[in-house]
From TrEMBL:
Residues 204-298 form the Sporulation stage II protein D amidase enhancer LytB N-terminal domain. This is Stage II sporulation protein D. It comes from Candidatus Planktophila lacus. It comes from the Bacteria. NCBIfam families: SpoIID_LytB. Residues 1-27 form the signal peptide. GO terms for biological process: sporulation resulting in formation of a cellular spore. The keyword Glycosyltransferase does not apply. Keywords: Signal. The keyword Signal applies.
């Protein structure tokens, strides 16, 4: 998982709105913003990435780093050749795919093809041809654009895209560019499924899913830490990322038709953009390859290897962050996170958050005051209360509030 919230497990505490008689507090002007100061970045559960880097600089091994942050665990070897379905784009209404690789050949097939399934392609097209995806009347409408010429191809609910230079097709390596919501990312391995899925709130939407092998094609693209970091920190991250994905590899999520999201909801999968970094991409790939098959286990089972950028000086437990205890996420000292030299951006931070964001976080019409009611043993906010100008109030877990308000961490105070 990433430097930010990995999963949406935060629990809010429901408090029935209570109306007070008019008083001076209710007559206060609703503030435009609220000011906070704090330290750390992310939920702070499990491995601190800044802490791992500091320990690597001090000469500690990857195994020692992992066993420090995941109490009572061991590192062992498993078979990690599973194929993972990674959601690259979710709840979309449009997207564009293309390759500019010289000599590339791309093929579009009807249906969501399995790994070993063969079929006759609907369309074969060369590089510099855009495949345009649009949701139209609940179906995926596909067209192509080459130069100034556009052509409608087909409509349907599921398709598969394969390209030359992969396990599926011979040829020189091909890089695929995927553009969604104005942002473009690059991918190279596996195949891509294009599907219509149904969301409970939004109805039918598009999902784009990359099927890749865990041991290399997926892990080479994990963009969680800089590839220039010390070797042992990179290896610790590779093992933690492999463990997290391995634990998720047994179940397809219906919401995304995937094992994992490519975002901080799980862990950041940057695809070919990570492994192709000048100079350092090969260093990251080497760290992945050296740790082949290594995962973290507790009492014989793979753990959910939570990690984040940094803490407020002591790591958090999963119980205090999200309400669910795990034996291996014990709070441990993490002084590197509050060392400005080691964590210059987040050892100490200040933020101003707008009234609209704060009110939305608490589901109140507005907020006139915020009060930290209690702190967890690690120092993070346990409960925070907001009072509205109409006298109603609500209470949230600190981690829930941090996630909803986009504060860097739950180690904060209200100014």
């Amino acid at each position: 998982m990433s430097k930010k919230p990995l999963i949406a497990l935060a629990i809010s505490i429901a408090v029935s709105p209570i109306t007070f008689l008019p008083n001076a507090a209710n007559a206060e002007t609703v503030p435009a913003t609220f000011a906070f100061q704090g330290s750390g970045y992310g939920h702070g559960v499990g491995m601190s990435q800044i802490g791992a880097r500091a320990k690597a600089l001090a000469g500690e091994s990857a195994t020692a780093i992992l066993q420090y942050y995941y109490t009572g665990t061991i590192v062992e070897t498993v078979t990690d050749t599973q194929i993972l379905r990674i959601n690259l784009g979710n709840l979309l209404t449009s997207a564009k795919l293309r390759s500019d690789s010289k000599g590339a050949e791309l093929q579009l097939f009807a249906g969501d093809l399995g790994e070993t399934q063969t079929a006759t392609p609907l369309l074969t097209f060369p590089s510099k041809t855009s495949l345009n995806l649009n949701l139209t009347d609940g179906l995926l409408a596909i067209s192509t654009t080459r130069g100034t010429t556009s052509k409608a191809i087909t409509t349907g609910s599921a398709f598969t895209l394969r390209w030359s230079g992969t396990r599926y097709q011979a040829g020189s390596p091909t890089v695929i560019s995927l553009t969604t919501n104005g942002a473009t990312k690059k991918y190279r391995h596996g195949q891509i499924s294009l599907k219509v899925i149904r969301d409970k709130t939004l109805g039918k939407r598009l999902a784009i899913i990359n099927s890749v092998r865990l041991q290399d094609e997926y892990l080479w693209g994990i963009g969680e830490v800089p590839s220039s970091w010390p070797t042992q920190a990179l290896e610790a991250q590779a093992i933690a990322s492999r463990t997290y994905a391995y634990a998720k590899s047994t179940k397809i999520r219906s919401a995304c038709d995937c094992h994992l999201y490519a975002t901080i909801s799980d862990q950041t999968f940057a695809g070919y953009s990570k492994e192709s970094e000048p100079r350092f991409g090969e260093i990251w790939k080497a760290a992945v390859n050296r740790t082949a098959g290594s995962i973290i286990t507790y009492e014989g089972r793979p753990i959910t290897a939570y990690f984040s950028s940094s803490s407020g000086g002591t790591t958090e437990t999963s119980e205090h962050a999200w309400g669910t205890a795990t034996a291996y996420t014990v709070s441990v000292p993490d002084s590197a996170s509050v060392d400005v030299a080691l964590n210059p951006r987040f050892a100490s931070w200040t933020r101003e958050i707008s009234q609209a964001v704060i009110a939305q976080a608490f589901a109140l019409p507005d907020v006139i005051s915020l009060t930290v009611l209690s702190n967890n043993p690690a120092g993070s906010v346990a409960l925070i209360q907001a009072i509205s100008s109409d006298g109603s109030f609500a209470v949230l877990r600190g981690e829930t509030f941090r996630s909803r308000s986009k504060l860097p961490s739950a180690w904060f105070s209200v100014n």
